[in-house]
From TrEMBL:
Isomerase is among the record's keywords: no
GO MF term list: 15-cis-phytoene synthase activity; geranylgeranyl diphosphate synthase activity; squalene synthase [NAD(P)H] activity
GO cellular component, one term: plastid
SUPFAM superfamilies for this protein: Terpenoid synthases
Keywords, sorted A to Z: Carotenoid biosynthesis, Isoprene biosynthesis, Transferase
Pfam family, one: SQS_PSY
EC assignment: 2.5.1.32
Name of protein: 15-cis-phytoene synthase
Membership in a protein family: Belongs to the phytoene/squalene synthase family.
Transmembrane regions listed in the UniProt entry: none
A single BP term in Gene Ontology: carotenoid biosynthetic process
């Protein structure tokens, strides 16, 4: 196409395709004529002027247009893509075939200056038109440029959505914001490299920015939901753990503190996102109440355990092992616990005694350590000990009766040789 030379470009035919349900008793042509009528604009609204201008442009080609109506293919519109022709309305299938024949009959080759263009020539002609549009040599090209930019905008928006969809939610608000800014920058860069025109591209850029912000808000909401879901699960797990530590068979402050610390560490490391601050406050209140409750019950439960333990060891040292030192030690512990509380009127006064602190330290060393959790292994170890005692009572004394290494109970001198009865 030479510069300054007139070009005759035969416009394509217009085909108005209208669903029959929208006719409301009118003919197809009446519907088209009504759609091309001017909209009253008494207030001088610019948007209405643009609408009327578009309708005038379409009306100019009225002699070169065809109207056609189609009935509804099926009542289930949401499943149309999955249906075959045999499932569609017969009238619709028949009218559709007529539409195909009509389209084939009105198709004409593209003609420029009286010469028919082939595919390559038409592409070259279209490139010249686009170049003229970008340079602003053709007036009133905004709508055409926006049509081209719309497809680019959708691709850039899809690029942004795909980049954001790769995020492993939940994330911290700052991390999500950083990824959003990077993804938005990539989408905008891609749009700048592909868009048409200059003046009208600004409007498309603004639209792309608005669409990106809408998608970003959805990701923010999804991040908040995932964060709340994760932190709630961690909170519930710690709450269950604290409840378990409250009812230990063998109370241990060391074990409670270890579980307490582990819960705090796991929550701090795994709970992320906008819900973390809220759940941190809930965790502090819950953990504080649990620790206070455990401490209040700890000394009382340990005192009861030691009383029971001293009585059991009296029986064991007296009748089972018959080891006098064990029985004496157990009696001393029992007498100390009972007389001290009677002398000072309350059990609580015992908890400030240095002897009690020594007893607590010894108890903690025996009950819980990184190598042995007696609360977990108390029953198995008790069974093993019971088996060993039974074995020693039944077989060990017969086999090693003369080799007494422990100060066991003996018959008095000069007494009878009659076996002692327990």
């Amino acid at each position: 196409m030479e510069e300054g030379q007139d070009v005759a470009f035969e416009p394509a035919k217009l085909l108005w395709l209208i669903q029959r349900d929208f006719l409301q008793g009118k003919s197809v042509q009446e519907m088209v004529n009504e759609a091309l009528q001017h909209v009253p604009n008494n207030d001088g609204d610019r948007n209405i002027d643009q609408v009327n201008q578009i309708r005038d442009s379409l009306a100019i080609m009225g002699d070169n247009s065809t109207a056609f109506s189609l009935p509804q293919p099926h009542l289930l519109r949401t499943k149309l893509c999955d249906m075959k022709d045999g499932e569609l309305d017969l009238v619709y299938v028949k009218k559709r075939d007529q539409l195909k024949e009509l389209v084939a009959s009105i198709i004409r080759p593209k003609i420029v200056q009286g010469r028919t263009l082939n595919g390559k020539e038409f592409v070259a002609f279209l490139e010249q038109i686009l170049e003229a549009l970008n340079k602003g040599e053709i007036p009133s090209t905004g709508s055409l440029v926006e049509v081209f930019n719309k497809g680019i905008l959708e691709r850039c928006l899809k690029l942004y959505s795909e980049m954001m969809a790769k995020l492993p939610l939940p994330l911290s608000e700052k991390s999500l914001q950083n990824v959003h800014e990077n993804s938005k920058g990539e989408a905008m860069k891609s749009f700048d490299e592909q868009h048409f025109g200059r003046h009208h591209a600004k409007r498309s850029v603004m639209q792309l920015d608005e669409e990106i912000e809408k998608v970003y808000k959805n990701f923010v909401m999804a991040n908040e939901y995932q964060s709340a879901k994760l932190c709630e699960a961690l909170y519930s797990r710690c709450e269950d753990r604290m409840d378990q530590l409250q009812v230990l068979r063998l109370p241990s402050m060391a074990k409670f503190n270890a579980g307490f610390l582990q819960c705090n560490q796991n929550f701090e490391q795994e709970c992320v996102g906008p819900s973390k601050a809220n759940y941190e406050l809930r965790m502090m209140k819950m953990m504080g109440k649990s620790k206070s409750s455990f401490i209040n019950e700890y000394n009382h439960r340990l005192f009861n355990w030691l009383v029971v333990f001293s009585l059991v060891m009296v029986v064991v040292g007296r009748f089972i092992i018959k080891f006098i030192l064990i029985e004496i030690g157990a009696w001393i512990l029992f007498i100390f616990l009972e007389t001290y509380t009677r002398m000072f009127w309350s059990v609580e006064s015992l908890y400030y005694n240095p002897v009690w602190h020594f007893i607590v330290a010894t108890w903690e060393t025996l009950v819980y350590s990184p190598f042995l959790d007696l609360d977990r292994w108390a029953i198995p170890l008790g069974l093993v000990a019971a088996i060993l005692v039974v074995y020693w009572r039944c077989y060990g004394r017969r086999k090693h009766g003369s080799q007494r290494l422990l100060p066991l109970y003996n018959n008095p001198k000069g007494g009878t040789h009659r076996p002692r009865t327990d």
